[in-house]
Amino acid sequence: MDLYEHQARALFEEHGIVVPRAEVADSPLKARESARRLGGRVVVKAQVKTGGRGKAGGVRLAEDPAAAELTARQILGMDIKGHTVREVMLAQPVDIESEFFVGYVLDRAAGRFLAIASAEGGTEIEEVAASRPEAVARVHIDPARGVTSAKAAEIAEAAGLPPQAVDVLVRLWEVLTREDAVLVEVNPLVRTVQGQLVALDGKVTLDDNARFRQARWGEQKSAHDDPLEAAAAAKGLNYVKLDGEVGIIGNGAGLVMSTLDVVAGCGARPANFLDIGGGASAQIMADGLSVVLSDPDVRSVLVNVFGGITACDTVAEGIVRALDTVRLTKPLVVRLDGNNAARGRAVLDAHAHPMVRQATTMDGAARRAAELANST
């Protein structure tokens, strides 16, 4: 579960990481009142679970409470990459001397966490990593030892961070482990002109598998979560909204994650993560297709299924029956492999839906779905 920025910063504050004073408002009048309590001059920030807020006009400086009210009125209701802004956070501005990036992310391939840090924060870390990879330090963490002061000093030195960052890195690791997160990130972590390190922005993704240990997570869930994710949850689907144009449906989290990577490698962006699990009944397929096709950003859909306990011909029959109840408005690419794959492909061939294409390999299916998305 991704947290909103104001929820992430609350966790940071609980663990001793300095953050600016801030309040959350869901109306222009409340924004004005918050700005007054915070001293008048504030930064107004859209609260949505996606990046690119600044470029979209969702982060603005307001000089006084009246300006904060006007700015909140302009930002509230904005659409940022398919996310409607329903709350804004108003934060006290700080005088910045320099900006850094620090974070931890689960490296599934390595089976351990990866520390990522850079002395060049405040911009897209992906762009920095692509253009100047030497400016981004990557240090794997031994899960048995965690991030000690010595390990934090190693990370800080590798990234060219100031000595004060050691304490921040240790505390950020505490956030990750104690809150059962799979990603924690601060960008930018700034040094003020007074020499203090302050987390100006935060990103936290919690591990849904650890909900039984985190009773308070129910309090973190917001009524303003993405409507597609809410609709999928109501149908019992494991769905996460992303920023791309290729809808993804697969059976098994590992297969779906691999599919996301392959689609990205074909020059398109995944629009979602949707795992239908071990079964693929007509109702599950209909529910999945309905949610994915409801995303206005989706230009094509890729169904990638490996038949195991549930045979591919059963999956294909489910797709056919689902197409009787869901109006297919975008091209659908289906790749079936594994148990009874040939029979499954024959079922889809016999149905001969004009919007359905088949592929025999994951690479071929991803390439076709990307081409269709990029051509529409």
**How confident overall, as mean pLDDT?**
90
Work out the helicity level: 25-40%
Domain count: the total is 3
Largest sheet: 6 strands, antiparallel
CATH level-4 homologous superfamily of the largest domain: Succinyl-CoA synthetase domains
Structural class: alpha+beta
SS element count, helices: 13
List keywords for this structure.
Dna Ligase, domain 1, alpha+beta, D-amino Acid Aminotransferase, Chain A, domain 1, 26% strand, 376 residues, Rossmann fold, four-stranded antiparallel sheet, 3 domains, six-stranded antiparallel sheet, 13 helices
Per-chain topology:
Layout: H1 5-14, E1 22-25, H2 28-37, E2 42-46, E3 59-62, H3 65-75, E4 79-80, E5 83-84, E6 88-91, E7 96-107, E8 112-118, H4 125-131, E9 136-141, H5 149-159, H6 165-178, E10 181-192, E11 197-199, E12 203-206, H7 217-220, H8 227-234, E13 238-241, E14 246-250, H9 253-265, E15 272-275, H10 282-293, E16 300-307, H11 312-323, E17 332-338, H12 341-351, E18 356-359, H13 362-374
Parallel strand pairs: 14-16, 16-17, 17-18
Antiparallel strand pairs: 1-6, 2-3, 2-6, 4-5, 7-8, 7-10, 8-9, 10-11, 10-12, 13-15
Helix pairs in contact: 2-3, 5-6, 10-11, 11-12
